[in-house]
Specification:
single chain, mainly alpha, two-stranded antiparallel sheet, 63% helix, globular
Length: 158
């Protein structure tokens, strides 16, 4: 039943968490050499999925404070990954949007990390791969419930 805690062994849950960390570490190592910080990756992915956002909304979506989001966006602006644009109706409001350079950077991470994951899938049986892909859908639902259309990443920004 939804909402009730399932009967899960704490040791099995812990082993699952450790395995996720190990896999994420391996995927992160596969990223381009300049290693995009995870918060920046989350910002790029969110902007690719949703389009321009105010910093407050971006902070909420990424799961950080507004001051942290401001610092992250500033660093990403300097790197050319995002840009800010004033709202046409209210000049006090600005929106952060993904630049073409940001799309390319996100695409590089997607390619490199996905390549490593697909290589790891080669060590598994087909039913195990299918199980993991189904688990991926469950993990998305547990986290933010949304997929990113990878084809969007290569589109030109609006």
């Amino acid at each position: 039943m939804v909402g009730e805690s399932p009967d899960v062994d704490a040791d099995e849950a812990f082993q699952f968490v450790l395995s996720l960390y190990r896999l994420l570490r391996e995927l992160h190592r596969a990223a381009p050499p300049d290693n995009l910080p995870r918060t920046q990756l989350l910002v790029l992915a969110k902007l690719a999925r949703s389009g321009p956002l105010r910093i407050g909304a971006l902070a909420e979506e990424v799961g950080c404070s507004q001051p942290t989001a401001t610092k992250v966006v500033h660093a990403m602006e300097e790197a050319g990954f995002v840009a800010r644009a004033a709202d046409a109706g209210d000049k006090r409001v600005s929106y952060v949007h993904l630049t073409q350079q940001g799309r390319r950077r996100l695409g590089a991470v997607v390619r490199d990390e996905s390549r490593v994951l697909v290589e790891r899938f080669g060590d598994l049986e087909q039913d195990e791969v299918e199980l993991l892909l189904k688990a991926g859908a469950v993990l998305r639902r547990m986290t933010d419930g949304a997929e990113i259309d990878i084809r969007q990443i290569s589109r030109d920004p609006q």
